[in-house]
Amino acid sequence: MQNSPNNILVASGVVKTFPGAIALNAVDFSLRRGEVHALLGENGAGKSTLIKCMTGAYRKDSGGLALDGVEIDPRDTLDAQKLGIGTVYQEVNLLGNLSVAENIFLGRQPRRFGLIQTAEMNRRASALLDQYGIHINVASALESYSVAIQQVVAIARAVDLSGKVLILDEPTASLDAQEVEMLFRIVRGLKEKGLGIVFITHFLEQVYDLSDRITVLRNGRLVGTRDTVSLPRRELVTMMLGHELLAVEKEPRQTGSEAGPVRFRFSNYGKAGSIKPFDLEVRKGEVVGIAGLLGSGRTETAELLFGIEKADSGTAEIAGVPANLSSPRAAIANRFGFCPEDRKTDGIIGDLSVRENIALALQARQGWARPLSQAEQVALADHYIKALDIRTSDREKPIRLLSGGNQQKAILARWLATNPEFLILDEPTRGIDVGAHAEIIRLIEDLCAKGLSLVVISSELEELVAYSSRILVLRDRAHVAELNGAEITTDNIVNAIAASSVNKGAA
Amino acid sequence: MNQKYLPLIATLVIFVLAYAVCAFQYPNMLSTRVAGNLLTDNAFLGIAAVGMTFVILSGGIDLSIGSVIAFTGIFLAVMLQNTSIHPLAAFVLALAITTAFGAIMGAIIHYLEMPAFIVTLAGMFLARGMAFVISIDSIPIKHPFYATLKTFYYKLPGGGRISLIGGLMLFVFAVGILIAHRTRFGTNVYALGGGAQTSALMGVPVGRTTIMIYGLSGFLAGLSGIVYSLYTSAGYSLATVGVELDAIAAVVIGGTLLTGGAGFVGGTLVGVLIQGLIQTYITFDGSLSSWWTKILIGALLFAFILMQKGILFVSRHRRTHA
Amino acid sequence: MDSAKRLGRRLLPQFIALALILMLIWMVFPAFFSLAIQNGRLYGSLIDVLNRGAPVALLAVGMTVVIATKGIDLSVGAVMAICGAVAAASSVRGDPLVLTLVLAIGTGLLCGLWNGFLVSVLNIQPIIATLVLMVAGRGIAQLVTEGAILTFNDPGLIFIGSGAFAALPMPVIIWFVFGIAVAVLVRRTALSLLIESIGINRRASTLSGIRTPVLLMAAYMLSGLCAALAGLIVTADIRGADANNAGLWLELDAILAVVVGGTSLLGGRFSIIASLVGAMIIQAVNTGILLSGFPPEFNLIIKAAIIVIILVIQSPKIETAMTFFTARTKGVDKAEQQTR
């Protein structure tokens, strides 16, 4: 199959390691002429690493990559482009301030006597876009057009430059239904022309709508490649999320979901364009899990709860009293804490020491005039370094030098130091090694036992099942199901995620 | 209407309105003589501002140009005083030095990944220091060739004249517009201003372009220095202090985004002329004090920064709700 | 004890540089260290360095904090001129000294508030935001002085510039006391931690509950306050407000002092004391060149050379190259940092 003459791009046994982590472990991937091949997996599964190895953004450590049967090793993306592999990203990687035509012809503008023939360039750009059924003024700045049009321009440029393989990295993430339809029409047209197209998305409907085959990666390994028509949706979700999905059953929790009264109540809470209004109740000493695929509104829910985004509907109550959650600071004043998904940009203060990072939130709440003394900070840091087993040679070490798992624990320590009542953890176990993984799960259970209320967002379903007393399932930026008690099984979560949003229809 | 022209149109409207107000109060200001002088008096600033436009379009800044102009002036004066070299040869030499100077700054900015602000600050100190080292006196230039050059002008109807240096400024603007909009280098400059990383991904030679941009700025600062020495017939190392600020103000008032990526070389000409007009008006008025120039320019600068922030906000808002 | 040792280690390069420069000057100008007391007041080249360096030292205090927040304040020179003009105008009008000082300092704070507003509320890049006041400031100062050099003879105001207290010139006492006071204030409170945090990662700081806009505003207001004090000293020293030349290009010297003091222009870790030493290094170079009979023209070239050397040392590229060489011992750390 690897040597089928119909294959245009074949990657075999690709390995890519980063210090401390294996991002791709002997992954095989083949792309045929004239097919749309969906590449799926959760964050950290390795799909973007695989793409980057194919487009030259990364150099693979070992393994083969053949284009049209010829072994290639692109040095960089420009090299890959010349060889025939073009990529279009979700964040359109074009220059919005240049005109549409300039974007398409950057670096290869038609010239006469050294001067760009603007009219000629515009004529050619118009002609090119006409093939895609797009009739726009190509002399206007790219940023004056919708993301969908920009996406098409990016595709037109990539195909015009490369012409063999087109990689679409979440191209539909910010498009509406009509725009997606237009994009799909174009992609189908390119498929007819014999291009090999790799399609990355987290919208399962779109996968079934467009793709011929599906390859699923998980934790840097290949889970499998299947024909789309013969792969049931449920099985696909299982491939992406669970391992064997031996239907992990819920062990009844000791610390009672029935015991405490509802402490935090969000009613009809939502923000237009971000997440549809939802209801959420969290008791004292309870973990509420939030499950859903990437892009389903998980992070948006967390940001709303913590006041990073302001809710434009609904109310929040703490112990029956309306609470002001209009900013992170206001949320913190209500004893909230938030461990963000993107630790690097939203969590750690890289150049500050582990000690300072741990003391930061408590210090911020106390205000500048009441400093924690050096001794208090040291005591605080030492306590949590020991309690959470943060592995660092020195509490004075800049936190950016720690591994991901230890950074995560330090941020958790930052919030625990403020003695919170409500903690929001967004993907607390992502990108950290297996050992630290288990410890963080143990920590979550401990905190819960101590009476904290937690909301944990995770794509690791077994984990969620293990510690949650209730699970909310999200799909398409809305809360679509709530699982209680015995209903909490990985099976049920997968079913809820995979349930085709039939009512969504063509909208 | 295409909103990328909005700042340019605003600038033009301000200029026309301001000129109309001036002409209404002092009909004399409509004369070609005033118009010609406006060009001559601001020639050196205009030429340097063209270089600054390219630098700012690419998302950078060049603080060294005032010092480079002074350096060129004193360099020419001393060369013409102490050697028998022909002024044209001295011009070529000066331009070679200033171009190389700019290019080296560009190389440091690119290869050492340091902010343009601090690199060109060092360049500013260095160029001014070199000027001081050459001479701290004001040295007159008495070469007959200078006198000859001053006799070249184009007579306008109504008694005004476009002097050689005024004409040179217009020529530099014309070439600048051509380079900005009709060469691959020009597009690359805009591309850098739109995003250096994306540009690199799209195949723009970032290093070469950066070096060329600062080299061009150095070249035009040198040319501006030559013009300034023609204008004053002297070289003085303390001259043109703070011209970089005037140039930056002209560029921004001319509608170029101070963060780079959008703007027009032609707009800078209007920006320079607005500054010149304010000065001319104050001279005509006689009772108004000169400091109003600075305050007005500062206010205009602020207004344009706010307007661009507003345009950016509106366009982003519109796009997310599209 | 521990923190004193850490401070010592942090300041070591600056002190070595300062010592080297002083030694160099002493070698060409042996009388450099000699001090004399006349009329109960110390005189000598060393005192001269401390005295002449006062404006830059004061500006460097505020500039350090602003740069630590990942900002920059280009307007301080112009603000000096404005505050000097306000003080002179007030003195000429016959206001009592206290009112004069309050007006001048209030003006400085107001200028800082303006800059801080543009940066933290309107979210304009600091370099652009402070450019507005840099361009317009001198015009405003001239507006206050009405274009003339406003001279005054209030002995109280003059005392600030040329008086002496405990045998030391007033400017020395002002910058020293003020600089140490601010340094102690930010270190003894949590301000240093919060400011560094903002400079390193503004978003994560806000998410941790830090009042980022308020602190940014305060940083620019401190810078305005420093400019007001520097402006008062310069104005009092020449007994008049020179709107054109007071504080001219001192913003660049202040930035240079901060950079020489080892605070990164990219924000984060900062040391006010180190910037003060940096300001003295710059002044020592200035004075040294004068004393040693070198033409003062070399001053700027030496400044340029200092910037280039520091640039090369601070360059991220060079740092990468250096860590490459030390990677063998610290390989794991670096590696962990690069994942994700």
Largest interface: B-C, 44 and 48 residues
Tertiary shape of chain C: globular
> Which structural class do the helices and strands of chain A define?
alpha/beta
Q: What is the radius of gyration of chain A? A: 25 Å
Which second-level CATH architecture of chain C applies? Answer: Orthogonal Bundle
How large, in whole angstroms, is the Cα Rg of chain C? Answer: 21 Å
Q: Describe the strand arrangement of the main beta sheet of chain A, using strand numbers.
A: 6-9-10-3-11-12
Per the CATH scheme, the topology name of chain C is ABC transporter involved in vitamin B12 uptake, BtuC
Determine the structural class of chain C based on helices, strands and strand pairing: mainly alpha
Order of helices and strands of chain C: HEEHHHHHEHEEHHHHEHHHH
Q: Which segments of chain C are poorly predicted (pLDDT under 50) over 5 or more consecutive residues?
A: 325-340
Organism (chain C): Pararhizobium antarcticum
InterPro entries (chain C): ABC_transp_permease
Subcellular location (chain C): Cell membrane
Main location (chain C): membrane
Please explain how this structure is put together:
The complex is a heterotrimer of chains A (507), B (322) and C (340). In chain A, 34% of the residues lie in helices and 25% in strands. Chain A is an alpha/beta fold. Chain A folds into three domains: 7-97 and 141-240, 3-Layer(aba) Sandwich (Rossmann fold), CATH 3.40.50.300; 247-335 and 422-507, 3-Layer(aba) Sandwich (Rossmann fold); 344-419, no CATH class. In chain A, strands 6-9-10-3-11-12 form a six-stranded mixed beta sheet, sandwiched between helices. In chain A, strands 18-19-20-15-21-22 form a six-stranded mixed beta sheet, with helices on both faces. A four-stranded antiparallel beta sheet of chain A has the order 2-1-4-5, covered by helices on one side. The longest helix of chain A has 16 residues, at 177-192. Chain A starts with 6 loop residues before the first strand and ends in a 9-residue tail after the last helix. Chain B has 322 residues and is mostly helical. Chain B is built from 14 helices and four strands. Chain C is mainly alpha-helical. Chain C has a single domain (46-296), classed as ABC transporter involved in vitamin B12 uptake, BtuC (Orthogonal Bundle), CATH 1.10.3470. The radius of gyration of chain C is 21 Å and the shape is globular. Chains in contact: A-B, A-C, B-C. The interface between B and C is large, with 44 and 48 residues.
